[in-house]
Amino acid sequence: MTDLSLSDQAIAGKTAPPGEARALRLPTQWLGVAPFFIFALMFLILPTLYLVVGAFRNGEGGFTLDNILQLVSDPSISNSYWSSIKISFWSAIIGAFAGLAIAIAIVRGGLPSWTRSATLTFSGVASNFAGLPLAFAFLATLGRVGIVTTLLRDVLNINIYAMGFNFLTTTGLIAVYLFFQIPLMVVIIVPAIDGLKKEWGEAAATLGATQAQYWRMVVIPVIWPSFLGTVILLFANAFGAIATAYAFAGPTLNIVPIKLYSQMNGDVLHNPQLAYAIAFGMIVITGLANVFYIWFRTRSERWLK
Fold first, then answer.
1. Average pLDDT over residues 124-151
2. How far apart are CA 100 and CA 191, in angstroms?
């Protein structure tokens, strides 16, 4: 009886070895993420490599550094980079502080619960509201024949354009960008504020700390990495925006996305290789911004776990 059971076990071990059974299994767990990797390869990795290679080629296909050097030597291109950096920086800074104030108010300000849900719902929609609809909304509101401009002129006898107001400037573009920068800040920073543990405030109060000391020594150091990371993300978000800027002001603003569009599709400035170099410069700047964002995000998650 004992011999029979042992032989059965030996036969079972020979017919279905654990190693061979595992080897015959198909990697079905990768099927779910396969569309993501295919999409990233086709629409992100390969186009980026194509741009990088094209930035170092001339019209005949040979290797050259002239396109990269022209980013610095050509004043119109270098000025467009500085204009884009300035617009992105100020829209990110203003949007970050305004969004942080709104987030603190709806999370820890003692407001009714419906204000949080309403604000987050609006922020989720407004953070993705850009391009032609956003440009049209601002022009229809504060343009020369916009509804607010008309009401100020007809009702209050105030002509803002006669007073020197010009909406089609870098300052006007910053104001337009704030419409989606502030909601994006609210959406990203609210989880960081939610991560502040109630026990930290109770411990600070037990030790005799004032509310100002609690915010200065506990809250600000904890949310500071998340805040800086979000500022960098807002910078990258504004730096690469082209649809809103082009629909808002057309080719009149000298910023990098419009300069890139002119080099790709313009009749006078058509130079695809230089356009690849301009795109390469944008990739470098936004890539560095995202690296710093990931780094700050990792630091903030240590406190919020």
1. 85
2. 12
CA gap 136, 243 in Å, rounded: 12
One-letter identity of residue 287 = G
Burial of 229 (0-12, 13-18, 19+ CB in 10 A): buried
Q: Is the pLDDT of residue 249 over 90?
A: no
Domain range summary for the chain, segments of one domain joined by +:
35-304
Per-residue confidence at 270, pLDDT binned at 50, 70, 90? confident
Give me the phi and psi of 114, to 5 degrees please.
-70, -25
Contact present, 59 and 273 (Cβ < 8 Å)? yes
Cβ neighbors of 193 (< 8 A, separation 6 or more) are: 103, 104, 107, 108, 223
The pLDDT of residue 267 is 56
- Residue type, position 203, single letter: A
Q: Does 1.10.3720.10 match the CATH number of domain 35-304?
A: yes
Q: Find out whether 143 and 252 touch, Cβ atoms under 8 Å.
A: no
Burial of 188 (0-12, 13-18, 19+ CB in 10 A): buried
Checking if the pLDDT of 165 tops 80, the result is no
What are 38-54's pLDDT values in tens digits? 999 998 899 889 989 98
The closest alpha carbon to 276, from 61, 76, 88, 82, belongs to 61
Closest Cα partner for 220 from 235, 204, 234?
A: 204
Is the dihedral angle over the CA atoms 34, 37, 39, 41 positive or is it negative?
negative
Q: Tell me how crowded residue 121 is: count the other CB atoms within 10 A of its CB.
A: 10
Digit-coded pLDDT (tens) for 207-216: 888 888 888 8
